Each structure stands twice: as C-alpha cells, then as structure tokens.
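Quick check before the chapter quiz. The format below is the same one you will see on the exam, so make sure you can read both the input and the output lines.
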Amino acid sequence: WAAHSSQYNDSTWSALQLEGPPRVYPQYGDIHGAWAPRSSNGCDEFVEVEYEEGVFVTAMEVYETYHPGAVSKILAKDGNGKWQVVWSGPTQQPNLPRESRIFYPDVNCLDFPCRIFRIELDTRQSSSWSEIDCVKLIGYREAKFGTTSEFGDLLTQPHPLLVDCLAVMFGLEQILFQRAAWKIPCEEDVAR
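Here is the expected output.
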C-alpha cells in the first residue's frame, strides 16, 4: 500500500513500485520500477508507505535513483492518526552528483512503533523527476528498554544508539555514562 500526492502513471512509475526490495538501484536514470511524481519539478510531492508491522525506528534508507536530494521531511503516523516528524532538513539539490544514492537521514527516535510513513519531497530545485526506488525501514519490533537484548545489557553496556534515542526522547543534551556502568549525575558530580 502506498498513498501519494501524484504518480507519473499507474504502472511503471507508480507508488506501488516502492513495495519490496530495490528494482532500479544501483542504476541511475529515468528507469521503470521506481516511483515518480506526475510533475517533473517545481512543487511539493509526497508518498506514503505502509509496512506489515510497526517497529521502533532506529534508521531508514531512502533509495533515490533519479535526481536525488529532494527529500525534505519524513513523518510517521502515531496510534492517534497524527503525523510525527522522523526527519526534517533542507533539500540537497542541485548539489548532488547525478547518480543513485541511498539517503540515510538522521532519524528521530520515537517512543511508539511505526508502520506508516510519509516521505515529502520539495522538487523546486530539481531539473527533472526525483524518483524513489524503495524505502527500507530498520528498527525493533519491541521496545528494548530495561531488558537484555540486541542492545546488550542496558545497565552495564549501553548501546550508543540507545543513548542517542534516550537523549532525544527525554530532551537531554547529554547523558553521562561510563563504559562499565551508568553514571547517574548528582549535584556533587555537576559541581566538580
């Protein structure tokens, strides 16, 4: 399933082309198998993708195969049907070379499992169609807080990705820890 602002046609460049693994990447060009919006440039476009199950997102990969760099925002739909920002930034066109790329946005860690995402494009600086081959979602099926898991023993070996997520979730500018154990700052530590 994929909703969209527009699509070039109902088959070879439709939003349904985003389903599954890459069909075009690593090739570059206006090639059947990637989603392309109806207009070649000059407007805002979006495509929504839905996955079979929700995950706690740790990373995303956007496979851009023609005129990359138009992605301006990525949103996730929460349990109440509201969009939450996963990533937002300036477009990178026309500063990128004309070649396929995998865009790795620095995603915000959200405290709910996500399965519906909206990829927004700003094509005003594009010289032609900005095409996306697929969107790879990376994350965990269950929250990994307070258990021994793929993150390691959270009390003795916190994973750097978990530290980043916690900092984002709780608005902390810095989480202090030692390699062997969490170091919880107290007033005495801060005063030193």
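If your answer matched, good. Residues 6 and 37 are 5 Å apart (CA to CA).
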